[in-house]
Design a protein that fits this description.
membrane, transmembrane helix, transmembrane, TRAM domain-containing protein, 5 strands, five-stranded mixed beta barrel
Amino acid sequence: MLPLPPVVIGAVAVIVLLVLLVVVRRLRSPSSEARESKRAHEAAQERDPPVAIGETYEFGVTELTDHHSGEEVAVGKVEGFVLFTEDIPGDVGKGDVIRAKVLSFNDGRTSADATYVGKA
C-alpha cells in the first residue's frame, strides 16, 4: 500500500470535519414541531386573550399538574388559550369537561388562572 500524500490526508480530514459539522448542526437545530410551537407562542403573545376576567368558560381538561401555587390544577384551553384551574375536586380528571371562572392573567397574557365552578 502506498502512503497517501499529506494534501490528500488534509482534504479527507476537511471533508470529515464538514460532514460532522453538518450532522451536529442538524441534531442541535429545533424540530419542525418545536419551531411551530414557538411560532404559536409568539402569535399568542400578540393577540388579545379570548377570555375575560370574571367570566366563566367551559373546556376539557387536558392534564392535571402542579402549579406555582403548589397545588394540583386542571389545565385546559379556550380557543387555544391556556387556563390553569385551581380548587378542583378530587374526582376531576383528564378528559373531563369543567366550567371555570377566570381570575387573572399571567404577565404576558398568554395564559390565565381560574377557579373551578363545576362539571359541565
